[in-house]
């Protein structure tokens, strides 16, 4: 130890957090020595607080701005000279952990892992992510020091984000599993989800000395696989409804689609391995009698034999160019004769 350093350690010091980083929530001040001399001064500025650790214990939490005089067992020169056997080092150490007492706002968060739940309308498991922002402040500096800080020099917004997100995801999974919002309605319930998650997450953070003052979900996003599955189901549902409008069931629409696609191939229907009369055969399949005779036990015809429906379906075949005009007129006359 040089003579200059020796004399420097004997001086009373003034401790303060001069340059306060807006992204730092907790900051340990580096002093020339941890052997703070008796009657040294500590300055706490507005928007700050300070936790003082002396001899390994939290001696005080100073939450009000002001200048404080430190009382220690380290007296200039005397304490140092009395510790010759300890290499002039005192066992009385004092450390200062400043914290931001003002609220830290608009910290962005997002789910690092996907959240899954069963979608009630499409009856399939969906995967989504969520993101938003939150605001937080130190609620109990001593509790936070014991549970989160330890020997960390700086505890920043990134550290807070990691803690909050880790508490949010389980709560979000539980909430969605319970509510099971339909895919189309999730965005309508973002405010409800935000309020519920804020309440649940606040309880968890208070155990760590943090106070969650605001929490918001800005949006949710579904993964590509989920969107693809929902898209397929929506497309099939639309086709089924369209088929119902023209008196066809979904299976018959699929047959029409297959013939239409085959007709577009090179060589037409014949090139696809189909006979030119396939459209007529399809018409026969569609219009075939489900019961050739009428008995007392079955006095009425099946719905598919209704002349109006049969004429509508026949017109659909003609519009799709799956039968010719002559075939259409011939079959139409057959149906009209049954009236």
UniProtKB/TrEMBL annotation:
InterPro entries: Band_7/SPFH_dom_sf, SPFH_YdjI. It holds the Pfam family Band_7_1. Residues 27-236 form the SPFH domain. It comes from the Bacteria. This is SPFH domain-containing protein. The lineage of its organism: Bacteria, Pseudomonadati, Bacteroidota, Bacteroidia, Bacteroidales.
